[in-house]
Amino acid sequence: MNDCLFCRIVAGQIPADVVYEDEQVLVFRDIQPKADVHLLMIPRVHVESLASPEPPDSALMAHMCRLLPKVAREQGLQEGFRTVINTGAGGGQEIPHLHLHLLGGSNLPGF
Ligand code: AMP
What we know:
The protein is an alpha+beta fold. Helix content is 21%, strand content 22%. It contains two helices and five strands, in the order αβββαββ. The protein has helices at residues 5-10, 58-74; strands at 18-21, 25-29, 37-43, 82-84, 100-104. β2 and β3 (37-43) form a beta hairpin. The termini are far apart. 22% of the residues are buried. Residues 5, 14, 16, 30-32, 40, 86, 92-95 line the site of adenosine monophosphate.
């Protein structure tokens, strides 16, 4: 998807502060962090959201969820972290490429 910001990050056309990557996902720092640590985990393939007509592959979702604690630990979040997935306009999703927010640190805002 040429017009998708996160696809362009995956393609290396837009720079990002990448902290982890493998054959399925990319994890990079949010450009406007809402906490000490604020990362975005995205699939390399374009999936619009959890509510896409073609929903994300189960194995991919499992991979992403299972990676979260490892990435969080690597960022110093031994005590835990928050995960947020905004879905659709009603859920506050601004970028229509599925992404998991991973947040943590001493100034984690209230929920
Ligand atoms: P959401 O509202 O769930 O769609 O979140 C989109 C997130 O992407 C926001 O927290 C933005 O700050 C973040 N964001 C937008 N553009 C970039 C970018 N170029 N690099 C990193 N994060 C970005």
